[in-house]
Amino acid sequence: MPSPSTALPHRRVPRAAVLAAAALCAVLSAGGCAAHPGSSHGARAQESREPSASIEEIASAVGCTAQVDVQADELREGGCQTGEGAFRMVTFAADEGQRSWLAEARMYGGTYLVGSGWVVTAPSAQALTDLRGRIGGALESGTPHGGGHH
């Protein structure tokens, strides 16, 4: 007998997959390590809230129009291009989702501008420093993995 769950096979995307994919997209766009992502922790968010800035508001501060690539209950991700390069923006519905995303993304190195419910990556730390002057947030750095065999 067919299972009722086979009726909508592509309806539900696991939270861990969405977070890992968004982290990987942002890191690769920012020029991070191209290795495969580690396992995601996929913890459930305890409280939902609106981020302090939307992707569209962040893009406006950057000086571009964002294209939203991922729209899920847990997060929205998008990006835009400027003369400085590609900017990626992620907004989160819950603090736990943002913490999980950052933990995953930091493994790839890079610099992140982190605000209340949002994260931005850019082609350079200087671009994020300039953006910080317009929208606030805190600069955070990741630690590249792999130990570097040269």
Topology:
Elements: H1 15-29, H2 55-62, E1 67-71, E2 75-82, E3 85-92, H3 95-106, E4 111-115, E5 118-121, H4 125-135, E6 138-141
Antiparallel strand pairs: 1-2, 2-3, 3-5, 4-5, 4-6
Helix pairs in contact: 1-3
Question: Can you walk through the features of this model?
Answer:
31% of the residues lie in helices and 23% in strands. With 150 residues, the chain is an alpha+beta fold. Strands 1-2-3-5-4-6 form a six-stranded antiparallel beta sheet, sandwiched between helices. α1 (15-29) packs across α3. 33% of the residues are buried.
- Report the average pLDDT across residues: 75
- As a whole number of angstroms, the C-alpha radius of gyration is 16 Å
Characterize the overall form: globular
What percent strand? 15-25%
H-E string: HHEEEHEEHE
- Number of helices, where a helix is a run of at least 4 consecutive DSSP H or I residues: 4
**Strand arrangement in the largest pleated sheet:** 1-2-3-5-4-6
The secondary structure category is alpha+beta
Largest sheet: 6 strands, antiparallel
Distance between the termini: 56 Å
Keywords:
23% strand, 150 residues, 4 helices, six-stranded antiparallel beta sheet, alpha+beta, single chain
Quick rundown:
31% of the residues lie in helices and 23% in strands.
